[in-house]
Structure formats: C-alpha cells, structure tokens
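We modelled the chain as a single entity of 305 amino acids. Its sequence is:
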Amino acid sequence: MNPSTLRIATRKSALALWQAEHVAKLLRGMYPELTVELVPMTTRGDEVQDRSLASIGGKGLFLKELEVAMLEGRADLAVHSLKDVPAHLEPGFVLPAILPRADAADALVSNHYATLAELPAGARVGTSSLRRQAQMRALRPDVELLDLRGNVGTRLAKLDAGAYDAIVLACAGLARLGLAARIRSRLAAPQWLPAPGQAAIAIEARSDDPATLELLAALDDADTRITVSAERAMNRALGGSCTVPIGAWCVRGEHDLHLSGLVGDVDHGRVLRAEGSAASGQADALGRRVAELLLAQGAGQLLGL
C-alpha cells in the first residue's frame, strides 16, 4: 500500500531547502493525493565551520543525521546534492531517483575580475574543495588559495566583505538560488572537471521501504543516472571522498559514453588525466577502466593509496 504522506529530511541551508522543495513539488505534481512535508535538520557538516571537510571526515557528514532520521522513522527520504553522497552508501540505503542534471560547471565569482586569466599574481582565491584547489594550482600557481566554508550566502558575504579576490562555487547552486548573475565565468570541461555527480540532485531512501521506492522511481532520469554512474564508479575505484582531489565528467553520445577523469595534487599543482569510452550499458566498467588508467600514471601516490 502506498503511503499517504512522505517526509523529506533535508539540511537547513538555503540550497538544500530549495532542492528538497523542488523534489516535493515534483512529487505533489505527480501524486496529487500525496501529502509531502519537509523535515529540516542540522548536520555535523553544517555545525563545524572552522575546519575543512577533509579534516573532519568528509562530505558524508552531511548525510549521517538525515539517514538516522530515516532509520528512526522520522523521515521517509532525504534529498542531497549527489556530489555530497559518498561513493559507498551506508548499508540499508539506496538512491531510487537521480534528477536531470543542471549545469555541472564550476563558477568563478569575483567583484573585480571576470576570468582566471585576469586574476593578478597573489590574488586570494577561496575554496575548500581539494579538487578545485588542485585545478586552480595547476592553472594559476601564482595565486593564494584560502579555505572557504559555509553555505552559498555565507561564502558570497565573505567575498563581498573583501576577504577574497575571487571564490569558486558551483554554477548549479548559484542558479538554483537565483544568483546566476554572480557568475563571472564558467570553469568547465574539458579543461576543468567537476566533482563526480556535480549538479545532480539525488534522492535517498531505505532499501526496505518498497512502497516509497516505487513512488520515487518515477522521478529518476535515465540519462543522468547512466553518466553519473560512470563518474561515481571511477571515484569508488579510486577510494574517492571529499578528502581527495578527484574530478570526473561523463557525457552520453548517440551510441556510447565518454568519461574524462583527473586526480590532482593540491600542494604542487600536478594533475593526472585519463579518458575512455564505452557502450551506454557499461557505465560502471568504464568508470573502473578510467580509474585504472589514472592509477597506472601514479594516481595512487597522490591519493595515498
């Protein structure tokens, strides 16, 4: 029997609430008889703002409390940015739906400079993402990289207060919050790679709740699932988490998939790259193969494997 109410666990940030409400609207439109409620929560990843995510355990900290809420019956599903979802889900959880992907590029945001090339030597660039730091170090070894934590509004406020000359955010997050005008330039593939799954919204639920899984499966976007599956398979094969600088970008052609991957070194700006193609039904194998190509170049040393 299908449930009459679905409760969505979500973080309290403006972007997380936008994404959860977006999913709620889709569910209400698809199932008019269904009551959909948001259950906003604060996670460990939100609470600790004075240290990098890598140093306190990674992006999985944004999921734990939401998963506990589902296990305890306080929520039926959770909505996440897929790039925050670890390569290995906790036992008992699945991703029944991945929504159509938005713009996966990163954004250079600055009040004074329109492009990376315009940044002066010594410019203060804010980002806590090791992937973004490694690529920035490779392209502009002369700028100063500074940590930047907090939600989108907090990060923009720090930029506007003069703490940074430029910051790097996700284009999709800015657009979803109505802040696309803050994007000065897109940092995009093939030169600059996003995080695996970036710009896709994922819905997580308990694997032992078939009625809810059936409702959510109707929201799944097949094309997005296939491409992000290749990216996440590569990440998984590299032991990926937010504590390592890994980028991935998969596109689907008429007959096949093409995956580009990179592993970076934040300290020295060294970036290893590999790519490959496979049939659309071979997403996981493609991800593993590109990971093997990166490992053959020495990615294991950069990742501490």
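As a brief sanity check on the tokenised model: Confidence is low (pLDDT under 50) at residues 48-59. The chain has eleven helices and 13 strands.
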